[in-house]
Amino acid sequence: MALVLNIETATTNCSVSLSKDGETLVLKEDNSLGYSHAETLHVFIDEVFKIAKIAPSEINAIAVSKGPGSYTGLRIGVSSAKGLCYALNKPLIAISTLESLAHQVKEKDGLIIPMLDARRMEVYSAVYNQNLELQREIKAEILTEESYSELLESKKVYFVGNGVNKTKTLIHHPNAVFIEGKLPSANEMALLAEFKYKKSDTEDVAYFEPYYLKDFISK
Prior knowledge:
By secondary structure, this protein is α/β, with parallel strands linked by helices. It has helices spanning 37-52, 71-88, 97-102, 149-154, 164-167, 186-198; strands at 3-8, 14-20, 23-30, 61-67, 92-96, 110-117, 122-128, 134-142, 156-160, 176-179. The chain contains 6 helices and 10 strands, in the order E-E-E-H-E-H-E-H-E-E-E-H-E-H-E-H.
């Protein structure tokens, strides 16, 4: 059981939560400010501690969304998390951005494809089954009308994330379900961070780097 500070900055959603035993206690996030994480992240961190009436020294670990996603957003989130780990002498837990995004899908009758918008018709995506087990590795891919066609022939496929908008202009299969308006959030990081904390699955703070997947993307 752990008290964890969760930080998510992989997209325009600047999101921070405090969780206990895998359950979110306080969540502070804002997607309306664009990529303003440098200005808002530490304000949100201070606010969640104040709202929860918990001192930073009381937490057991700090979890950060490791990517893929915005190069600048990930760099800010990871740098902040590492700085806090050093200052508070706490372990660092890295959470896959796409895995936590997949946890926003509650339907259990098909496959889940979390996807984040990259450049032009490209997305970062992965494939999970209904038990949220990884079925296809994370990769950057160019979307076409034939994307995911084999998966769609056999079962429902739930697409979630800010890559959905471009995907639905190409894919019109009846088994395709597009869940719009969802971005990675520190809320879904809570349970994943708890699992990793229990297994002592932590990172080397000195050497940990975000999972950019590709070279610099200015977003």
